[in-house]
Amino acid sequence: MTPPRTSSPVLVGRGDELAALLGAVAAQPSVALVVGEAGVGKSRLVRELLHRPEVAPLRVLTGFCQPLREPFPYGAVLDALRTVGGLLGRVPLSPVTGVLRPLLPEIADRLPGPPPRPEDPRHERHHLFRAVREVVAALGPALLVVEDLHWADDGCRHLLRFLMADPPPNLTVLVTYRREDAPGGMGLGSAYRPPAGVTGVVVELAPLDAAQVHDLTAAILDVDGVSTEFAARLHERTAGIPFVVEEMLRALRDPDWRLLEEVEVPALLRDAMAERLDRLPTTGRRIAQAAAVLGVPASEELLAEVGAVEQERARPALTHALHSGVLHEASDMRYGFRHALAQQAVYDTLTGPERQRLHLRALSALGNVTPRPFMQLAEHSRRAGRLADWLRNGEAAADRALEVGDPSTATRLYQRLLDEASLTPSDVDRLAVKLGQVARGGIDQHDPRTTLERLLNDRRLSRAARGEVRMNLGFLLIRQFEGTVQARMQLEHAVEELTDRPGMAMRARAVLAQPFIGATPLAEHQRWMRVVDSYIEACEDPEVRYSLLANELGSRVSIGDHSVVSELDRLPATSADVETRRHLARANCNLADACALVGHFDLARDFLDKGLRLTVGAGVPFTESTGQSTRIHLDWYSGNWGSLVTRAGRLLEEYRELLPVASESSLVLGCLAVARGEWDEAERHLEDSGVRSVENSITPVALGGFAALCRLWLERGDLARACAEADRGLDLMRRKGVWAWAGELAPAAVDAYRAAGRVEDATKLVEELAAGIADRDAPLAHVALKVCRALVAMGRDDDAVFLLQDARRAADALGLAYYSATLSERIALYGVESGDGSAVAALGEVADRFDALGASRDAARCRHLVRGAGVATPSRRGRRGYGNALSPREQDVARLLAQGRTNREIADVLFLSPRTVEQHVARVLRKLGVASRADLLA
Asked: What are the helix (H) ranges across 404-521?
């Protein structure tokens, strides 16, 4: 007898979605994201895609993420590559692919020998990513499918982001995930935008509507149709989720539609699975129940041992479970459920004693596995009610996750353990401290914060542990928007609670000594600095000393302390001890940030390279994230703007909740937008740089935000608003008292004051700046002082041009590309006004410099001034025909059109006449093949 259908033989209601995926596969390189809730049909859609003839020429690589995975970074992607050995050898592989040999023993004989371990540990992960990319590229046209990405480890997400950012030309990457279970609702852990040249598609799977449920039902039951009433009721009961529809129909032996009226959806699904289990022989039910308890695909032997089925009877029992559709083969010789809902439904059929007995058997069966699967052991211990085992295995799993660089898994495990009401005070102390330590080095802010805040009111927590927990909470708060004021309060309270642990208390003081936060006066920070410095001098514990130096050295460099340079050799290059290496990573990244603030840019890059190398494998993603934001700020200063908007945007998307990273990224994006004349975008980003909540800001970043806003309004001709932003920024500067950070704000403020006729204010500011940095090691601020003096001299002093030239030489010495160009513009303008015939040509050359940077607004302004001088000065790069490609000017117009700008607004930004803009717009629309501006915005 032919068994009844358990699923539809045809795909129902997903035609457009399948077409979108086929389109992506046909347009390699490409990326496809399939998103939907549990049971909505993601896997079915992928299976349908894989059976299409269009996909047949592709090499399909499939990896699955599991909910109870052991910590194994990159696991799903590496699993997808285990069977490709026979396909390698057609093209030579570079030595870098040898790094995969220990990770992929199945194909090790097809890979080159392991390359020498790089001196720079930071390159190890990059080498692995490059190796995976090269191996995939060597396979020819390929489709990489990673299912259930919401269960992936951080390493797997990072590897996939690397592949998706620059996929081989022969690759399509397709991932499926549930938004509700993914970090931040994003399968990759951060928003993804396909780069230029890569086809990208996001397929959102919604539940089926009533008509689609009707068609699905008819296909499964193999009938021409069902009643509209039945389909509507089935849709209502199942919410249109295809898997639940299938399970419902599977339970109906006869077309008795009255069954629909008797059971609600959750119970319905459980009863459907229960009925199918009842049809199995006893041994088949035990195998299925064992699979439900194990929670991950398992071998026949493990299922038999957990289900207490004799080995000779296990295979027939498993065969029954497979033929009935209860289980399916998830991978080679490993068996589980087709869907998590099915696994949960079978699990729910077990009574409490039955579940406990099976979990105990699973504990016993897994106890002899090597390496020990601590994650699974922890879960079975918890569900079996074995608190001591749950605590031991859960803590071991969390510790192991930290060792392999997966702090997010460790954080979740420590939190779950701390939710146990029966923990002893010593357990609470130990786990609370571990949670705080991993949380302060990670990037998951809000969940750990909630747990740490709750623990402070837990009476089981000792005073000493409470102080450390409070300190770690302060470390978290200081990174959060609107959290810095509360952070200082928590840190000061922690110092009081840690009186019996002076080394730990000093770590809180070292953070209080950092001058970067809010408007707290420098004098207060220096009071803490002196205490910390004295302790460091007498400290004999190297781990404590390095942890304090990690903050203290950067703090002192950032305020222009001359004496700190001689102390930098107190830091070793690296350490075999992981904790010490974490401190050294933080120290170098903090020093890089501090050097960038004051203008020691070459030193900043050196420290940054060292710091980021040390973060590799150290489990400190927060430190790594701050290093990345320092790098984009350095690129802003140096004029390395080619991909800066994209890089800063990605950084902002990934770390939006982290105040130091998000505000600095917003500042860079805002400054770039000002240089391009994108006023609305500039305002939006600069609002997030800390200028509207200075007490909860990263002070030097907020000062940079005020400077950029001042330049924005000055460029737009609103002198009152430009001066208002300058006034607010200088109020913060004066309250803070760190004039070493005036490198951007002071010139912008003097320029605004001078233009508004506030000459006395400009002169006073120059005097304040000179006094404030007189004994400070702050190259950027000293360049700013030269600029300010030149600006004040303009129009009333014959030496102004010489002062401008001196300032430009100082800017060039620091590698300040944009600053040098703006000073060159002023020098050229001074020449034009003085009748210097060569000045107009010099102004045209400055326009070319701005163009090369990407400062299109500044370039347009210079060319407008050249036209105003009545001299034709062609670009030094010459003119060329662009055919159907957009010219640089047309690219500027297209970018502004895409932002919804009117012709008049475009004319204002680019210093063109409305008629000229109208002609450019017509050419842009023609070349892009769109009929109207509305089509361009669609």
From this structure: 407-418, 425-441, 446-455, 463-477, 484-497, 502-513
